């Protein structure tokens, strides 16, 4: 399935909701501490950078040609599809957490969302 000239883009889709509405902000409904907000955003940026470095290391270890990239969206599926569109992807290959039917129904499924909304073929790999 893989050709020598294929390029892989490993996408880390960051939920905006998680970044901006962490539990600490629910305690202060009307005031914004700019210093705390700036520190939180810097911490969040460092976490993203660390995750991207981990992905790059996996690709290097597996001898995969490509890049890593993050995208921000309200929902992870939207971010992945936007990245696929922006990069003119030919295919999306993704994993599944293997949630049961009830949990998937309640929590939602990124892979289900992508399968139903993607303009390109999608392969979903089950958990080991």
UniProtKB/TrEMBL annotation:
This is Usp domain-containing protein. Residues 40-126 form the UspA domain. It comes from the Eukaryota. InterPro entries: Rossmann-like_a/b/a_fold, Universal_stress_UspA, UspA.
């Amino acid at each position: 399935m893989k050709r020598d000239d294929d390029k892989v883009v490993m996408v880390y889709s960051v939920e905006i909701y998680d970044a901006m509405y962490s539990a600490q902000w629910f305690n202060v409904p009307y005031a914004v501490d700019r210093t705390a907000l700036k520190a939180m955003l810097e911490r969040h940026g460092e976490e993203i950078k660390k995750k991207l470095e981990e992905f790059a290391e996996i690709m290097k270890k597996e001898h995969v040609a490509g890049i890593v990239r993050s995208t921000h969206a309200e929902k992870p599926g939207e971010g992945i599809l936007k990245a696929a569109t922006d990069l003119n992807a030919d295919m999306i290959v993704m994993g599944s957490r293997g949630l049961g039917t009830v949990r998937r129904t309640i929590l939602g499924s990124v892979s289900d969302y992508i399968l139903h909304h993607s303009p390109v073929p999608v392969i979903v790999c089950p958990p080991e």
